[in-house]
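Anyone able to model this chain together with adenosine-5'-diphosphate?
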Amino acid sequence: MKSLKHLNKYLFKYKYRLLLGTFFIVLSNIFALYPAQIIRETFNLVEARLTNQPIASTGFIGDYFQSLSFGKAILAFGIVVFMLAIIKGVFMFFTRQTIIIMSRLIEYDLKNEIFNHFQLLDTSFYKENNTGDIMNRISEDVSKVRMYLGPGIMYSLNLITLFALVVPVMFSINVKLTLYSLTPLPVLSFIIYYVSSRINKQSEEVQAKLSDITTLSQETYSGIRIIKSFVKEKLFITKLHDENEIYLKHSMKLVRTHAVFFPVMMLLIGLSTIFTIYIGGLEYIKGNVTLGNILEFVFYINMLTWPVTAIGWVTSIIQRAAASQTRLNEFLETQPKIKNPTNQHFEYSGKIEFKNVSFAYPESGIIAIKNISFDIKIGETLAIVGRTGSGKSSVINLILRKYDATDGTVLIDNQNIQTLNLNELRENIGYVPQEVFLFSDSIENNIGFGYKNGLPDDEIIKQAAKDAAIYSNIIEFPKGFKTRIGERGVTLSGGQKQRISIARAIIKEPKILIFDDCLSAVDTETEDVILGNLERIMKNKTSLIVSHRVSSVKNADKILVIENGEIIETGTHQSLMELGKMYYTMYQNQLLEMGKQKVE
Ligand SMILES: Nc1ncnc2c1ncn2[C@@H]1O[C@H](COP(=O)(O)OP(=O)(O)O)[C@@H](O)[C@H]1O
Ligand SMILES: [Mg+2]
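re: yes, here you go
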């Protein structure tokens, strides 16, 4: 239950709604109380008339209605009861309008809190967890927590105020009758608690099965071509059939429990009424209570049974909410490993330096970089080449502070990057990742996404597209820059996506530009055009170009060749060719691939 404390700050935030809601609950219960007393009066009146006794003035309204004729008095009673019921209904409406709305507002706030936390977490969190699962679990958990905040709190308050109002009245009439008629209630609430826990458990099983079926059928649909070409249709039909069978069994179990639930509840409520009438009858014979009192008690008991049934239900709601909130708290308490150390401004020039840097991935322990040292001066272009898996992307991860180095230091403009404002660091870097990710939005918006000062105008976007050598492709689309990409839009080729991703980084006008093997799907001629444009754009700025293709790096000021996380060769294209080792071999192999036979 402790986990639910997290929500107190929200309850406090909406304290006025909560107070108002409580006030409405009290009012609606007060108006529910009066009809019972009026009916007692009516009954006493009828009894007196039938037995020709003088009418005893036992109640507050009795005195007033004595002045009316018998028929009129009964009618008046009826009208009053009706009016009271309407007033009670109005206040119940207001109760829901305050408390249930409060729960929705808190749900909204809680979702925002969670969303903001998602944004705060770093790469390693997203590597360790399957985000889809977390998202699903969280939205389910939040809705369970809302059940506690809305119905849970509302029914609990209702129960408390109703008991506080009704039970004293009952005791004041007859202690023995009160005690007897209240005894079945705890049994009732225990049974409801038991049954509703069972229902919850069973419906969770049904839900889980249903999601199994959904997963299976989704996979079947998306893999239908493979399934057909391997002639495995029968196998999948059997699989689905079996899953459905299990689902059916679980559902039937749930239906059975439901079917038992209501009759049993009704039986118990009925029993407590009968009990009241029986004990009331005995007391009436002894002359301790009037007939009106017995009827009044039946009303009270009926008023109490519903909220008491709710105890069982509310208890299981609260338990589930507590379990959900525990999970949510766990998530909210997850701290990003990479934190922003300062909000201070720092003017970047763009010098990068690695000093004896080693790095192992915290999730897997794989050592990706071993004792690397190098520097890139302002305005220089550094290239890193090496086979896949040699550690190129890992070097970039460290510059972007997606991870922190295990040993050694990464410096930018002679400052340890762990001391720099993290947001500013990333703002100053134009990064084109190896795996392109574009939003399901227009091309225009995808490129403009990188722009730092609000919305870029068309000319700026066009220029970025031209620099990334994608402009001519874009204007060939019927909708040009407004073309939508993604599931409901056009499908771009790998090279086109890479170039849009490049335009998005260029438009940022960064101090440092990083290309992580992002020209792999672009042909060499286009690559030359892009690299030529870069020379102009990145004049006096720092560029880092990572590639497994030598052709991309020929013109760099300095080239690092890395292998197994270590720098094995450093130099310019010229000097590395003269060295005649790894770089030379790679260059020759790639020339062969391209069908050229001769090394220049
Ligand atoms: N997120 C990660 N978690 C664990 N290991 C990783 C991760 N990313 C890369 N590696 C490992 O680190 C090594 C270097 O990878 P990477 O830097 O991506 O190489 P490259 O970019 O040169 O292809 C590889 O052995 C790779 O398997
Ligand atoms: Mg890589």
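The two ends are 75 Å apart (CA to CA).
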